[in-house]
Amino acid sequence: MVERDPREEESMTAAILLPDPHLLERRDLTVEDVAGLPEDLRYELIDGRLVLTPHAKPTHQMISKNVGFAIDQHCPEEFVLNIEQAILVAPRTELRPDVVVLSEDAPDTSPVPAGDILIVVEVISPSSQRFDREDKLKLYSDAGIPFYWILDPLAERVTFTQFVLHEAGFYRQLRHTDDLVTIEEPWTITLDLPAWTRKRDRLRSARRSG
Asked: What pLDDT is recorded for position 15?
């Protein structure tokens, strides 16, 4: 018996929610074309192509929650932290990072224009490794987002990679670490990566097969 990848099952289930399944075949969609899709449908629009994304698993969600809490501890009042906030990166590209920090005066719309975004955080998943490290690095830098962080819970130890937008329009990598780290920009933020690694490992060892 051939077992089906659970991510494929979830994508097939999500596809049922589409008003027109042929949307998945198109390569010319705009953000306006997908504005009316069901609110509970998880997707990203990438260069005109609709990509359905599976729901995050507990370890992924745990890392996202911890990163968000760390950012929010000393977040200035003029910024707001959101989870999975849709961002208008380009007319044919709408992305949903795991954690987003935006200006408090950003329009109350979805997606939010990239010009109102300060930080985007992506937590690596098995299906997103190359895209988060390569394609999104360019998409977010081209959109002018000042800070891009990547958290990788798939590595031997949970790692943090910090990118800052250079004045020339590309990202500079400032650090890559799996240690306890405190950064000072855009404000003081402490990430306890060893604690997150221990929690991840506990979840793995305690997990029942499902």
From this structure: 55
Distance, CA of 147 to CA of 140 (rounded, Å)? 9
Q: Is 5 left (phi over 0), alpha (psi -120 to 50) or beta?
A: beta
**pTM for this entry:** 0.88
Question: 């780290």: which residue's tokens?
Answer: 181
> Phi and psi of 107, rounded to 5°?
-60, 145
Local structure of 51: helix, strand or coil: strand
Contacts 24+ apart (CB under 8 A), 199-207: 199/62, 200/59, 200/62, 200/63, 200/153, 200/158, 203/58, 203/59, 203/62, 204/59
pLDDT for res 128: 79
10-residue stretch averages of pLDDT, the chain, 210 residues long: 42 60 91 88 92 88 97 97 94 96 96 97 87 90 97 96 95 97 97 98 82
Element (H, E) at 102: strand 99-103
List helix spans (H) across 101-148. Answer: 129-130, 136-142
- Provide the 10 A C-beta neighbour count for residue 187: 12
Query: How many angstroms separate the first and last alpha carbons of the chain?
Result: 18
**Cβ 88 vs Cβ 31: under 8 Å:** yes
